[in-house]
């Protein structure tokens, strides 16, 4: 996703120094001494981010920034607690599949739930929320996550039942994401979305105001969202503050300046990661300063993707030879200053079912083995192909490093091209214009399903032409019948092993996340995990 664009399902990850970062430690913002002391102890806690928001209505919201707000202002039937990848009840008292076929899902709601405006929250609101999303069917929204839902009924004010058209064992994960936000049927229209400033939810915070400012080309963009603790909230989440603001910045260096000046108390993972890494190094070496940094793993991933219908890279031996040569350790060290970690499968570390299929098959980079792969397939060398990129956190340095690694073998000649326009880039890979390209991926929920199914079935979100009948028609359906998700790990392992053989894409790395905050801010370490949920209520000030 872009940090501002999600796709269904999952998100295509792009970053630019509006989310792009430089490859030097100075990055987009220099690491200078910190003089700010944070905002007033009596004022709201202020979070700074470079994510942007277009739509907040859950029927159309499908980007990092909007989901961050929705996850704190709305309840779903389920939610992801801190440090866990299995959803637990939220607005629901209990939820379960009835029967062994994963075709019917029954939830009983908590008693006495209300929205922040005092309206009762009942099963009718849950039914309305799902049906409304599917009816509006915003092309940029998350409605496709619920394509498996044939119908949903309120059996009483407190019981709701989902009837599915096909087995969908990950429905609980989808309901626990921001796509499952429950809206007030007395406030939200059934056939169109509400303005951002009019949203009503039942989460731990309520939206007080949404400020806008003129952005590029005079287009209005959200500059600040003010929240307050919802006194009518009934749930298990902790709320350590009464007021919380989110401020939006165009570039990481602007956010860094705001942090230094004390205009924001903390940041999400929006700073130049190299700057964050340097701040962390300073902190670990005993350096003095007001800024602290918490580092955590992230499930965001990046891939080198092949057009499997291309005459050159469509040959499996060519893709295998590339996989045999890629040095992920060098990429993480020399290009990303250890702000990423090497990835050897499509499912990242920290997600159930993760394995190291690519390392198991190819081990360390080996020119001799790569040469043997090409020779056995009678493919003349050097193999020539082009690699296209658009938004990359390391800008052109990433493609340059991949080119260097492949050409050092003498087996490849790689032309690296930049497509500066993200829309054109997506169009280019969708219509098969590129031979190979680098793209990031950020899933909607922390289940291996959302790292596998969207990428490798029926052409996948990367539109690279890959399709495997065994994966599509046998292995994936098997996983969707496993309501005990640990039982699906073996099947996901088989899928990952097969992908390492066919190589429709080469996993490069997964991100690390860095959250910077002033010394008087507490709780940051409690809300940073691989789910991607930033829990405002955990943040306090001393």
UniProtKB/TrEMBL annotation:
The keyword DNA damage does not apply. InterPro entries: Peptide/Ni-bd, SBP_5, SBP_5_dom. It is found in: Cell envelope. PROSITE patterns: PROKAR_LIPOPROTEIN. Keywords: Signal, Transport. The keyword Transport applies. Residues 86-461 form the Solute-binding protein family domain. The lineage of its organism: Bacteria, Bacillati, Actinomycetota, Actinomycetes, Kitasatosporales. Its main location: other. One of its GO terms (biological process) is peptide transport. This is Peptide-binding protein. One of its GO terms (cellular component) is ATP-binding cassette (ABC) transporter complex. It holds the Pfam family SBP_bac_5. Belongs to the bacterial solute-binding protein 5 family. Residues 1-26 form the signal peptide.
């Amino acid at each position: 996703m872009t940090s501002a664009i999600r796709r269904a399902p999952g998100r295509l990850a792009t970053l630019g120094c509006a989310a792009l970062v430089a490859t030097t430690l100075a990055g987009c913002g220099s690491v200078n001494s910190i003089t700010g002391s944070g905002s007033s102890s009596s004022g709201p806690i202020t979070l700074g981010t470079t994510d942007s928001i277009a739509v907040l209505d859950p029927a159309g919201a499908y980007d990092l920034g909007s989901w961050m707000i929705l996850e704190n202002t709305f309840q779903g039937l389920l939610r992801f607690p801190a440090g866990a990848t299995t959803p637990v009840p939220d607005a629901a008292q209990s939820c379960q599949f009835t029967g062994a076929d994963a075709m019917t899902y029954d939830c009983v709601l908590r008693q006495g739930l209300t929205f922040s405006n005092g309206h009762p929250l009942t099963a009718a609101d849950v039914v309305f929320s799902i049906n409304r999303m599917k009816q509006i069917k915003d092309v940029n929204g998350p409605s496709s996550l619920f394509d498996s839902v044939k119908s949903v009924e309120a059996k009483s004010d407190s019981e709701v039942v989902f009837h599915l058209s096909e087995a969908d064992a990950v429905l609980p994960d989808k309901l626990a994401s921001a796509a499952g936000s429950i809206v007030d049927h007395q406030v939200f229209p059934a056939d169109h979305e509400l303005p951002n400033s009019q949203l009503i939810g039942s989460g731990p915070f309520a939206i007080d105001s949404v400020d806008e400012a003129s952005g590029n080309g005079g287009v209005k963009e959200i500059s600040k969202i003010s929240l307050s603790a919802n006194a009518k909230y009934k749930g298990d989440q902790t709320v350590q503050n009464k007021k919380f603001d989110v401020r939006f910045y165009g570039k990481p260096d602007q956010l860094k300046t705001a942090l230094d000046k004390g205009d924001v108390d903390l940041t999400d993972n929006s700073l130049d990661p190299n700057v964050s890494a340097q701040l962390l190094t300073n902190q670990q070496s005993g350096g003095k300063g007001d800024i602290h940094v918490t580092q955590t793993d992230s499930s965001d991933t990046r891939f080198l993707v092949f057009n499997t219908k291309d005459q050159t890279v469509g040959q499996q031996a060519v893709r295998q030879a590339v996989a045999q040569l890629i040095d992920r350790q060098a990429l993480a060290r020399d290009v990303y200053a250890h702000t990423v970690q090497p990835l050897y499968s499509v499912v990242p570390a920290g997600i159930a079912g993760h394995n190291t299929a690519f390392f198991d098959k190819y081990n360390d980079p080996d020119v001799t083995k790569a040469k043997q792969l090409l020779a056995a397939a009678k493919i003349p060398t050097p193999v020539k192909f082009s690699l296209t990129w658009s938004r990359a956190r390391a800008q052109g340095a990433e493609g340059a490093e991949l080119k260097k690694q492949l050409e050092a073998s003498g087996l490849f000649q790689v032309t690296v091209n930049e497509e500066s326009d993200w829309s054109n880039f997506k169009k280019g890979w969708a219509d098969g214009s590129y031979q190979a390209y680098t793209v990031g991926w950020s899933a909607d929920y922390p289940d291996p399903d959302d790292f596998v199914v969207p990428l490798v079935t029926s052409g996948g979100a990367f539109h690279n032409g890959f399709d495997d009948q065994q994966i599509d028609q046998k292995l994936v359906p098997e996983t969707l019948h496993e309501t005990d998700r640990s039982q699906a790990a073996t099947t996901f392992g088989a899928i990952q092993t097969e992908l390492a053989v066919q190589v429709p894409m080469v996993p490069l790395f997964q991100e690390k996340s860095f959250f910077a905050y002033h010394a008087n801010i507490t709780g940051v370490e409690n809300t940073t995990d691989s789910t991607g949920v930033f829990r405002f209520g955990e943040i306090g000030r001393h």
